[in-house]
Design goal:
The structure holds two protein chains of two kinds.
Chain A lengths: L3 E2 L16 E11 L4 E10 L4 E9 L5 E6 L10 E2 L2 E7 L3 E13 L8 H7 L2 E12 L4 E5 L15 E15 L2 E17 L7 E8 L5 E8 L5 E9 L2 E4 L2 E8 L5 E9 L4 E20 L2 E16 L2 E14 L2 E2 L5
Antiparallel strand pairs in A: 1-10, 2-3, 2-12, 3-4, 4-5, 5-8, 6-7, 7-8, 8-9, 9-11, 10-11, 11-12, 13-14, 13-21, 14-15, 15-16, 17-18, 18-19, 19-20, 20-21, 21-22
Chain B lengths: L3 E2 L16 E11 L4 E10 L4 E9 L5 E6 L10 E2 L2 E7 L3 E13 L8 H7 L1 E13 L4 E5 L15 E15 L2 E17 L5 E10 L4 E10 L4 E9 L2 E14 L5 E10 L3 E20 L2 E16 L2 E14 L2 E2 L5
Antiparallel strand pairs in B: 1-10, 2-3, 2-12, 3-4, 4-5, 5-8, 6-7, 7-8, 8-9, 9-11, 10-11, 11-12, 13-14, 13-20, 14-15, 15-16, 16-17, 17-18, 18-19, 19-20, 20-21
Classes of the chains: A mainly beta, B mainly beta.
Chain lengths: ~325, ~325
């Protein structure tokens, strides 16, 4: 991720491009290693389409998922506040916060998430108030490319600018009559530019923290031509080391969702092996009508426990891939 | 490997360049799948250094290795014929035979191969006669690059021209009083250009057959600048499919030699999952004085049984890597 421009003003919303599918999004996550729970929240302004994607997904200690997926109307891209979600930059590059106030759907069986209509019709709703505060632990990673031919992390049809950072995350979470104090680690990103979720042919994104000094952000992404790129960083002793190689092996459920991962990572400084186990998986979908055709992608969001060198880490496993004839295009590798 | 020049004349020795380390080598391996025995032989002319590298390595029933490593003097690059090892071309790009007549060393405990002086001093010797004929059953893969900026399979500091092919192989092996008829499958290559083994930081190569219609040529290679590439082909139903992606997971023994591998492979047509089990590893070394420094690479040559779906194959796993402070540069990935 050399040759990227990143300034403090990039923490805030940018002037939107004219693309119909312009997206500007902020995402945060946080997980508590002692209580083994946590979750993520995201606001994605799609101002030229007149709405935001507002998403909340919490993985509770007993295996339930508390979530919300909305598309509230927005009329401008001047901030990140929609559908009960709001995002604040406390100090650029150092501290941000995200809050949610509104209903959450309580899901005991994640299979319900495969059927959004059933989810919204059947899942019990409870009121929730969530406050996440994130303090940067790592350098900033990414920004906006400075050359026209420069490879970006996810490709320019998914975002033009993109940066991310590992964090300490603390939170106060009220879901119905349950209250959780979260004290742990997390990650956040900010992206802007044109985006269709279905522009990703397939990728595997692995994000986790192993305390304040070690973390990973690992991306293996394949485009329609079959070209695979390996990207990301390994945080070791608080410093980011660029990834020079990834070997990833996935074990799958009978629903073709990731269950366990074996990961080999190489940076200029070290080669490491990690083992991951998905504890709770939210099997999400994104559908988009293109012409007369619906394109659909699966977005598997797995709360994951990792082992690295005797250390336990927590984080997110995200497998996004187009469905062709109902089959994830990257499966079974 | 699409844009390569390959003509029947390339089966024969090329005019050597003035590079001190000009190498022209022919390698073949053969395994009888029913008897689970076979091996590989290689002759590498280094005419500008005045010698050939002659290597013979047989994996015999019961785990015994019969091998020979010689550096006979050569004065020309006009033939592959030195140290008792000889290549005859019956039909260019279609059929060749490799012959060896001479002594081999019998090794019950492969660990002695780590110590060449002890090996040559202590190993029991036997006379051997080996002859195996290869008839190509696949397309030819590779040749001479046609553009100056073209990436070659192993990199131009390891070979300029290089081609390989899967084969049906028949022949006979006599070691001392033991005699085996060989009826199996193999793989062969031919390389020319400057070569120092130490120019590879590390590589993992897999060269195996699952019959006369199915095989693998897989390479993951890190050049000394640390950049990592994946190259190779799957041989399926008589055709080569270039690989688009390759992930490797290796299990190791206490000596850091490979004992088992899992391979995820993607081509434009399929995703393949192959598991390999090392039946016998010959832990070889190459040492060379470069400048005032002795640079050493390990060359683990492992006879491997592979499983790809319902098919079982046999071939070679080859891990070449520089030793840095005695530790293989690619280990433990």
């Amino acid at each position: 991720m050399d040759n990227f421009r990143l300034e403090e003003r990039d923490e805030y919303a940018h002037a939107p491009g004219t693309e119909a599918n312009y997206n500007e999004s902020v995402y945060v996550n946080g997980f508590d290693p002692a209580q083994k729970f946590g979750g993520w929240m995201r606001i994605g302004n799609r101002v030229n389409e007149g709405y935001a994607e507002a998403q909340v997904c919490f993985y509770l200690p007993d295996g339930r998922i508390a979530c919300q997926f909305q598309r509230p109307e927005i009329s401008h891209n001047e901030g990140f506040a929609a559908g009960g979600l709001s995002y604040a930059v406390n100090e650029p590059f150092k501290s941000v916060g995200m809050r949610y106030e509104g209903d959450l759907l309580l899901v005991e069986d994640p299979e319900l998430l495969r059927h959004p209509k059933d989810l919204f019709a059947k899942a019990p709703k409870v009121s929730a108030a969530i406050d996440y505060q994130l303090e940067g632990l790592s350098p900033m990673h990414g920004g906006e490319p400075t050359k026209a031919d420069q490879q970006t992390m996810y490709g320019r049809d998914f975002s033009l600018g993109h940066f991310n950072q590992h964090t300490r995350t603390v939170g106060n979470i009220q879901i119905g009559d349950e209250t959780f104090e979260l004290d742990g680690w997390g990650w956040r990103d900010h992206s802007w530019g044109p985006r269709f979720w279905t522009n990703i042919y397939f990728y595997r994104l692995l994000i986790a923290n192993f305390g304040p000094d070690r973390a990973m952000m690992i991306l293996k992404i394949t485009d329609r031509s079959g070209r695979t790129r390996r990207e990301g960083v390994l945080m070791f002793d608080h410093e980011y080391e660029p990834i020079t190689d990834i070997d990833l092996f996935t074990e799958w459920s009978d629903k073709k969702d990731p269950v366990r991962m074996k990961l080999g990572l190489r940076t200029p400084a070290r080669a490491v092996r990690l083992d991951g186990e998905v504890m709770t998986l939210a099997p999400l979908r994104n559908r988009r009508k293109v012409g007369e055709e619906f394109l659909q992608s699966r977005i598997a969001e797995g709360f994951t426990r990792w082992q690295w060198d005797g250390r336990t880490g927590l984080g997110m496993t995200e497998y996004i891939e187009l469905l062709e004839d109902g089959e994830p295009v990257g499966y079974p590798l | 490997m699409n844009e390569y020049l390959l003509v029947p004349q390339d089966e024969y020795p090329h005019a050597p360049t003035s590079d001190m380390h000009f190498n022209e080598s022919v390698y073949t391996n053969v395994f009888d799948h029913r008897k689970r025995l076979g091996g590989w032989m290689r002759i590498g002319n280094r005419v500008n250094e005045g010698y050939a590298e002659v290597s013979v390595c047989l994996y015999l029933p019961g785990g015994r290795i019969a091998c020979q490593f010689l550096r006979p003097d050569i004065a020309t690059n006009e033939a592959f014929d030195a140290g008792g090892l000889r290549v005859t071309i019956e039909q260019p790009l279609a059929a060749l035979t490799m012959h060896y007549a001479g002594e081999v060393m019998l090794v019950d405990d492969p660990h002695i191969l780590r110590e060449p002086k002890r090996l040559f001093a202590e190993a029991v010797r036997a006379s051997a006669k080996i002859e195996w004929q290869h008839v190509g059953c696949s397309p030819l893969h590779g040749g001479l690059p046609v553009r100056a900026d073209q990436q070659t399979m192993f990199g131009r500091d390891f070979s300029l021209g290089h081609f390989n092919q899967h084969t049906v192989a028949k022949g006979a092996i006599t070691v001392g009083e033991h005699h085996w008829q060989i009826d199996g499958y193999g793989w062969r290559d031919h390389s020319w250009g400057p070569r120092l083994w130490q120019n590879i930081l590390f590589d993992r190569g897999f060269y195996a057959s699952f019959g006369d219609d199915c095989g693998i040529t897989l390479l993951k290679i890190a050049n000394t600048n640390g950049s990592i590439r994946r190259a190779g082909v799957l041989f399926v139903d008589g055709d080569y499919e270039p690989i688009l992606d390759l992930d490797i997971d290796t299990s190791w023994d206490q000596q850091r030699d490979p004992v088992a591998v899992t391979l995820n492979i993607r081509t434009a047509r399929r995703a393949a999952f192959i598991e390999g089990r090392v039946l016998r590893c010959a832990p070889l070394r190459n040492r060379r004085k470069i400048g005032g420094e002795i640079v050493e690479s390990r060359i683990a040559e492992a006879f491997t049984e592979l499983t790809w779906g319902k098919r079982t194959g046999y071939g070679m796993t080859e891990y070449v890597e520089k030793l840095i402070d005695g530790v293989p540069a690619g280990y433990p990935l």
